[in-house]
Structure formats: structure tokens, C-alpha cells
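Structure representation:
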Amino acid sequence: MKLFTTLLLLTLALHVRSQDLSSIKIDELITGSLEEVLERLADEHQLTFEYQPNLLKDIQIAERPHNRPLDNFLKSVLKKYKLKFYQKPDGTLHVIGQYERVETQRYTQARAYQGPPKRRNISVSGKVIDKLSGETLPFVNVYIPGTTIGTSSNVDGYFTLLNVPTDTQTIAMSYIGYNTQQIYLSPEVQLDQLLAEMTPSSALLEEVVISAEREELMQASREVSLLKMTPAKLASLPSLGEKDVFRAFQLMPGISAANEHTSGLYVRGGTPDQALTLYDGFTVYNVDHLFGFFSAFNANSIKDIQLYKGAFDAKYGGRLSSVIEITGKEGNNRNFNIGGDISLLSLNAFVEVPLSERWTTIAAVRRSWKSPIYNEIFDRFSGEDEGSNPIADRFGSSVSSYFYDLNFKTTWKPSDKDVISLSFYNGKDDLDNSIRPELPSFIEDQNFSINITDVTQWGNTGSSLKWSRRWSDRFYSNTLVSFSNYFSDRDRSVDGSFTDADGEEQDISRGTFEDSNLLDYSAKTDFEWKVSSNSQLEFGAFYTFNDIAYEYAQNDTSSIIDRRTKGATLGGYVQNKLRLMGDRLHFTPGIRYNYFEETGGTYWEPRFNFSFKMTEKWKLKGSAGRYYQFAKRVIREDVLQGSRDFWVLADDDRLPVSSNDQFVLGTSFETRDWLFDVEAYHKKLSGLSEYSLRFSPSFGEIDYNEFFFDGTGVARGIDFLLQKKYGRWSGWLGYTIGDVRNNFEVYGEDDFYAANDVTHEIKLVGMYKWRNWDFAATWIYASGRPYTAPDGGYQLDLLNGNTNDYLSVSSKNSLRLPAYHRFDVAATVHFQGNNTSSMSFSIFNLYNRENTWYKNFEIVDGEVLSTDVKYLGFTPNITYSIKLK
């Protein structure tokens, strides 16, 4: 695909000033391709035309104007093909699509200005966009080379540079996944509405594949514990068939990759519920599809994603461990675009429609389909392997399962200062493994009937309405209201009837039932005030109302947990991003205030982070802060069949508010091609919660609410990263050594390893680019996770003549599963042509390592029988991707 604007410099002078196009008359037969016609007009009338070549492709015209003004002629011809033009200040006639905006375009010099400056100590502001789609780009690094002057664009792509020395400076912009862009100021350039266009680094120019030297997939060293990922480049990594940002992040040090059963992120000893996941501002409480093998987010709808492994700013709250901030695409505002992916697991399609010059829309939908790979994942993760259910194996079951997700976003820019966007997400998994067996006649004659229900459903719905306004070059606001709902329903039961030997009909009813529903209504306003070139003040206020219900029952009559809590959290924050000592020291102090309605308490969260540039290549960095969490997931201990968890709202009675005092200290050494980064962390956790029935009494009245237990924890470790950033060969080596220990008084006085403790974890990622091929391989090793096992079982005769079963267990998490490791490979070929398309081939777990997910235990005659539940083995896949633009 041809990427950017081609200039027809067919003038006799070096620089052409604006002409009155109405004074140029056209009175001749004009035929040929539109590109040839423009070239001829440029030659005859000393004009310069600028356009994107693919806009004019295959357009043939035949016109006979009668002494018509040139501007009138061009308007009428271009309108037929959904095009238009406008005249730039230097006289160039720029041809664009009919929906592309004109009035805010403020172009800079095509090359460095050589004359004297006219303005000094100036302010420069504007926005950064993708040159192909017109989408704004958030968090772009904007700076003046050779100076300490720099900033970054905000979430809507706007930036402001203060104290720029002169109006002849060069401004550089860098963004992961894009070629570094330079724009040139001059005395004629308007400085308050610059438009900087950046080109994706993997784009094709003039039908020649450009192997850019600076193609990054991941960026790790800009700020303390901050990772950035390029969604557009995820297809080059090995996967099971889906470009998945969460699985890609799991390849980084400090984030566990040994959890095939969830896409949730275990960050530096934290659990997935301790990671705040924001999609266009609303909170997503569950990120899993298909038992967690895929994340809930369609990469085709994502523009930018940032992960804070710790040390996140005061503007974020309500979580202990980390923050994942996802910015959704707005949609192509220049051309209609459509595309998608098809693999052996799912279908994925998106459409981008520019509704007007100021209004864009994007929709993306994904749905699984039944295939051998899908069935293998379902059987393995649902525990439905052959032999695990004797009734199903004998009589068969009608399995119906699928997942889908839908993203929709529409963005309206009523003025150059305002952006209004509405974002919507809905995703669901529906798994039905129920059995309605046809029984043999000799069993039916005994009036025996049975139905086995095995239905699991979960999903998320979320939406946000955002209004952003640029009040001035220095002041910006972002106001958002949002809604989020997570639900999970599980029904695994058996019901039926039979006639006993006495001729009496007996009912069969047993099973487990779980229903969970979480509602989140939120509003927040964030402000950015650029006080000076060395200070950016950020402050805001927020409100969240949670309504969380959870019910867990056995045998449809015995309610174990029936809990519903509601409560609001509100407050505000302030922080100051300071650049001191000639930009060598970046320091951000901040504080967050929370009022939690359920406890009536106030919770202050002081935070700060810093980075100090020792030399041009060597940086020292660190952070400290306190973090509180009010809505959290509680582990429901199940020694025999694996623990489960569920969401609750803290109440400071049975469920205390969780807290984390976190400290990070690190250093990095970075050259043009290499990065070495190391960070040590220490977390002191309190208010951790767990639910266990192993201590319930054997007789008498039981209050199941008594079995919520609280404890404390400590997580500490060191992350190492060695990255080759650019070139045909690129990739990284990540290593984490960590330790996560908890202390719950109910389990004894001694500390025990947390279930998510992984002592050693190694990730090797290698990528190679050859012509139009991308090759990649990853190897992961993780030491075994802890677990608790039963030692045995026994029965006691009670005084009333009944017997009761008892279970004895090992010390809490005193055993370890075998080490986890696997090797994945992938190859992607990019096809050249009018459309952008590619084919990816991948093999997951190439050497077919049998990794253990968890152990399933049964007690038979006092003897413990264990079964290993395995993760996936050797699994190949193929994916075809295509898009119009």
C-alpha cells in the first residue's frame, strides 16, 4: 500500500505562493486518468498538487468545460469521486477524501527553514495524528532535539511546548510502532494549531517494503514500572490464533506467564483483581474468554495500551497492584475501512466509517466457532476430557459453547477545542455441557430418570461518555461518566427420580450453584494545567457506586453464601509532574483522598515517583506509595477441586479494606539499540481475605458468614530486562525472582506461600524480519506454584447414630506443582497489493510439554487419589487477516 503524500513539483519557481484559481479558465476537452490530468494542469499553470496516490487510483475522466474557472472545475470533478481539495498557504493544492477535515490543518515547512527567526521564547501547541487514518495518537513523546524541552501528548493527542527558543526550531516526535517524525517551524507557520502526522513503521511506501530500523513492539524505560505495547504489531508474536495484548504483556518480566487458565495479569505478586483495567475510562472487572485462554479485548479496536506494573499516578485508584489503561480507536476519519481476521478459533471483523468531517465511528465484533482446536481447549479447561464424566462418556452430551464480544465507539469533534466520544463494550461466554441421556429400556422400566445440568455463563458490559475540552494551550479537562456490569452464573447439578425397592419414588437433587453480579456506576473529571515548561499540575474528582451480589448454594437448598453489599467511594487527587535540574530529574509527588461509604472512613494515599538521568544513557528511578482497594475478589478455598474466587465489597467487619505500601527502586542503561533495565520492589499487604469451610463445625447451627478470614502478606522481588530494540533481529530476555508470602491466623502462626507465588520466571522472546516475513519464537520457564493437598479422610460415628466425613489437609500451600515451561513459534507473511493482508502460522507448545494446571483429589476409603489436570499440549493454528486500508 502506498502510504503518504506524493508531491508533483512541476513549477518553474522554487516556491509558489497562493494563486486566485478562479482567474484560471479551463476551455478544452480533458480526458485521461485523474492523476495525468492533475499533472497536466500543474505543468500548464505552474501549480503544485499534493495527494495520496491511492485516492486517484483507477479514476478516468472525460470532461468538456466551457471557459470554467479552475476551482469550480476541480470541485465538480472531484466531488463525483468523493474527493475534495483545498489550497494551503504556500499555494499547494491538497486533494483529500470528502470526510477529511480541512479547517484545522496547520502544516509546517517541508524542510528546515534557513532564514533568521522572528519570534523568540514562544509556545507551540497542536495535536499528533496517524497519517493514514487521521486518528489522534495519545502519549506521544514530543521534544526539541539537542535541548531539554519536551512533553507528551495527552489521551486525545494534544500537546503544548513552552519556552521554545525560536520559531525556526525542529520538533521531533516518537511513538512506539511509528517512525520518528520531525516537523520544522518557520516565521510563517501558525504556532497554536500544528498538525503532526506520524507514519506507522511497518507501512509500505511506493510499493517498496521498508524494513524500518526502529520497529518496536514494546517499550519499557520511559517511566518507573511503565510498559507500552503496540497493538498493530501483536500479530508477529506466537499465539493460539488471536492477537492478544494481555498475553503479550505476560511475556514481560514481573508479569507471570504460567497461567494459561486466565488472561488476567499477575503483576509482581499481585492477583488479577488487584489490577485496574480501564477501557476508554470504564472499569472491566473480568478479562477472560474461553476459561481465560483469550482476553476479552479485540486488538482491532485498540489504539493504545499502557501497563503500570506499580508506582501508578494518584489519578488511578481502587486497586493495589497495577493499572492497565486501554484507549480504543476512534475510527478512520479519512476513508471508509473494513477488515478482519479468521482463524481456527474465531472470526473477527471491524468497520470504520467517517460519517462527516468531524464525526467518526468504529465497530468491531468477534465470535468463536466450533473447531478441533476450540473443542480441545473447551474439553481441557472445562474438565470434560474423556473419562472425567462416566455418564457423559456413556450416553453422550450435546455441548453448546461460544464466546463473543462487541466494541463500538463514535467520536464527534464539534470544534477544534472539544471532543465528545461514546464507547460501548459487550462480551459474553456461554458454556452448556448439559446431558439429557436416553436411557435403556430396562432402566426406564424402573421409573429412573436423570438430567445433568452443566451451564456456565459470564460476561461484561461497559460504556462511557466522555467530553474533553482544550480550554487553552495550557489547560485541558476530561469529564467522563461510565457504567460497568460483570456477571457470572454457574449451575452444575443433577436432578431426577427413581423407584426404590419398597416401591417408593425417590428424588435426586444435588449440585452447586453460583451467581455473581457486579454493578459499577462512575463519574470523574480530570484536569491538566501546564503551569510552566517544568511543571504540569494534574487534579480531579471521582465518584463510584458499587452494587455487588454473590450467592453460593449446594443441593439447591443449602445456601452457603448469600451476600449483597452496596456502597459509594468518592474523593479527589492532585499531583505535580516536575522537570528539574535542566530536565535531568523528573519528580511527581501526589496524593489521593478517598471516602468509603460502607465504613464511613477516609483513606489518604500519598505517592511519589522519580527518575534521575545520571548520564545520557544511565537512569536511576524509584517510587513509593500507599494504595487501597474497596471492591475485591475473595478466594473460596476448595482443596479437592481447586479454589474459586468471587467479588465482594469491603465492610471492615468480616471483610476489611485492603491496602498496600509499595516501594520500587531501579536503574536502566539504554543505547540506541539496547536496553538493560532492573527494578526491585517490595509490597506490604494487609486486609487480604479468604473464605474456607474446612474449619466449620460438624454439628449445631452454622453461620456461614463466620468463615471469612483476613490476613496480611508481603511480596518482593527483582525484575531484569535485556532488550534488543531495533533491527532485523529484535527481542528480549526477561527474568524475575520473587517471593509472595501470606499470613492468616486461622491457618497457623507461620507465614505460607501465596497461591500465586512463582520463585523464578524466565521469558525469551526473539523476532526476525526478512523481506515480507516476520518470524518469532518465545520460551517461558516458571518454577512450580504452591498448592494444598489432603492428607487423608476418615469417618466418625456421631451420638445420634449418623456418620460424618472429615478431611485432613497438609499445611497451607506447602507443596509445589512441577515447573512450567513451553516453546512457541510463529511466522507471518505480509502480502502486497491494494489491500493490506497477512497470513500467520503458529505452533503453541511446540515440544508438547505436559504442564499441570491443578490437582484434583478424591477420598476413597480413607485413601487420597489425585489426578493432574493438564494445560494444552502441541497446538498449531493459522490466521488470515485483511483490511481495506
